């Protein structure tokens, strides 16, 4: 669950999307935290429709490469995407939501957590 070396294909498409929607993701993460839904917001990104989280950003509506879904740690545990034994490790590796966005990238060749820094104002 550490930051993986993304190949150019993923890094480029994630970064180009991220610049457009970082403010939406940052605000959503903040809302999840202040509403006490979770201390650990996670944004699932994928190119196909999937069932983890709630659709936040549709690639068709926002002209992005990826769909973005808002979720959090408890859903990942319920769905057994993060095992009970790995919860503490996840929390230790989780980064400050004011500075980093936690993405769970789901694609045919790559599925994992990635923390990407928000652009500086």
Task: Quickly describe the structure.
This protein is an alpha+beta fold and 121 residues long.
Tell me what the structure shows.
There is one protein chain. It is built from four helices and five strands; from the N terminus they run αββαβααββ. The protein is globular, with a radius of gyration of 13 Å. The N and C termini lie far apart (28 Å). Strands 2-3-1-4-5 form a five-stranded mixed beta sheet. It has helices spanning 8-34, 59-62, 73-78, 87-93, and strands spanning 41-46, 54-57, 67-72, 100-106, 111-117. The protein has one domain (8-117). 36% of the residues lie in helices and 25% in strands. It is of the alpha+beta class and 121 residues long. β4 and β5 form a beta hairpin.
Q: Name the structural class.
A: alpha+beta
Termini separation (Å)?
28 Å
Average of the residue pLDDT scores: 88
Shape: globular
Question: What summary fits the major beta sheet?
Answer: 5 strands, mixed
- Can you count the helices? 4
- How are the strands of the biggest sheet laid out side by side? 2-3-1-4-5
How many whole angstroms does the radius of gyration measure?
13 Å
List low-pLDDT spans. Answer: none
Kindly give the count of domains. Answer: 1
| Portion in strands | 15-25%
Give the SSE string: HEEHEHHEE
Question: What are the SSEs and their pairings?
Answer:
Layout: H1 8-34, E1 41-46, E2 54-57, H2 59-62, E3 67-72, H3 73-78, H4 87-93, E4 100-106, E5 111-117
Parallel strand pairs: 1-4
Antiparallel strand pairs: 1-3, 2-3, 4-5
């Amino acid at each position: 669950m550490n930051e993986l070396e993304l190949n150019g294909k993923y890094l480029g498409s994630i970064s180009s999307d991220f610049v457009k929607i970082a403010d939406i993701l940052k605000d959503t993460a903040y809302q999840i935290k202040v509403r006490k839904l979770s201390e650990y917001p996670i944004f699932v990104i994928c190119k196909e429709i999937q069932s983890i989280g709630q659709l936040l950003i549709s690639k068709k509506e926002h002209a992005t490469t990826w769909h973005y879904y808002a979720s959090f740690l408890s859903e990942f545990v319920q769905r057994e995407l993060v095992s009970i034994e790995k919860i503490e490790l996840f929390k230790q590796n989780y980064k400050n939501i004011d500075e980093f966005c936690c993405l769970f990238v789901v694609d045919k060749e790559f599925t994992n957590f990635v923390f990407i820094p928000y652009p500086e104002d």
